[in-house]
User: What shape does this take?
Amino acid sequence: MAENAPAYDDANSLIEAAVQGKGIALVRRALTETELADGRLVRLWKTSIIDVYAYYVVWREGNAKRAEIDALRAWLQREAASPP
Assistant: This one.
């Protein structure tokens, strides 16, 4: 974990932090349906994978232009494309 990075013990606190623009959240879509529907959060990618255990990376709209979020997005894409 990054030095001085916040840590959350529950998904609701993590989601609220993302809504407040404090960073991004990797969470199950079912936990963010309301925030996604009303536009308080947006998904990192448009692609969806139907899976009962799927997680989505979300953040407040407008934060996508932050360099650290773009770096995380690139890293996640590289990791997902890498063979195990």
